[in-house]
Amino acid sequence: MEKEKTTNQGKSGSSVFSPGADKVESKLHFVWDECQPPRMDAGQVWAKTAEKIREHEEQEAARRSRNRRRLFLRGLWGAAVMVALLLGGYVFRQWQPGEALPSSVGPCMENSVCLEGVDGVRLVMLADSSRMWVNEGSRVVYPRVFAQERREIFVEGEVYLEVTRDEARPFVVHTDAFAVEVLGTSFDVKAYEDAPGAVVLVEGSVRVEDAQRQSVIMQPDECLEVDEAGIGTKEKVDAQAYIRWVHKVWVLEGKPLREVLQDLGAYYGVEIGCDGAVAGEPFYGKLYLDGDVRQVLEAIRLTLPGEVGKDDGAIYIK
Q1: Domains (ranges, CATH) in the chain?
Q2: Which residues pair with 273 in a beta bridge?
Q3: Predicted TM-score of the model (pTM)
Q4: What would the pLDDT profile of 70-79 be if each residue is shown by its tens digit?
Q5: For residue 102, what are the contacts with CB-CB under 8 A and spacing of at least 6?
Q6: Which long-range contacts link 117-123 to residues 24+ away (Cβ below 8 Å)?
Q7: Alpha-carbon gap, residue 245 to 261, rounded angstroms
């Protein structure tokens, strides 16, 4: 079930991505520097925000504990499996002006929307007429009205954006590991927990900046991975294949099984593993994600000599 909460967004800092102080202080800076309404009492804001953050962190920990199930897959062989997945990345933490919003930040205030718990793919029209497709299980924070200097949103998960061109106001997408700055273009951003993040450019041009302030310019049909170590190498790809998830179709072109299962787990909010002997097996084809995770695993099983079963509540293929 999707939730909408509200936060303030004000004037942003000049840096696209600036490593910050500790986690809690950064969250407080988010509310104080970016979200405070005029003439609010500083002591009350800081105290109330710290309490809200602690409460939200406890709620998030409990929710994630309930949702995570361990799945083990063994013996998944063969390039004939019709599977297509992308995504990977990071959670928000250590936010300061111009950085990624922490995922455990407290309840939102007015003038911004916290979108999380999305069921299926959600299309959102932003205040500047940009269109944003939010993938299932993702979390996005965006303003009801953008600031005058910059248009900024915060992503944990995956979004596809068609950005309305505005040369006077760059559009910036923040994640924990990197930020993407554009004027007007179409691109896919993925930033899931415990896996590399990536940007795939469909059209236009974007600049990607990592936490070390190293940056690179991307051209259409390029994919760039980013992790905590920084920016990786660019790869030439068919960008259209990476945005088919908007229509619940994922395309895989030789991705190792280990990454396929990791991406599938991120999409459905579960943990999936496999034997080391098959972790590097390349997979090709398409996977249609209209069903639940068990239906998807059953489709994979049809290409294998194994079967889907349960063990203490865990789903596995043996």
Answers
A1: 3-67+89-239 (2.60.120.1440), 244-317 (3.55.50.30)
A2: 72
A3: 0.53
A4: 322 222 222 2
A5: 23, 26, 27, 30, 92, 93, 94, 95
A6: 117/1, 117/2, 117/3, 118/2, 119/1, 119/2, 120/248, 121/245, 121/246, 121/247, 121/248, 122/2
A7: 16
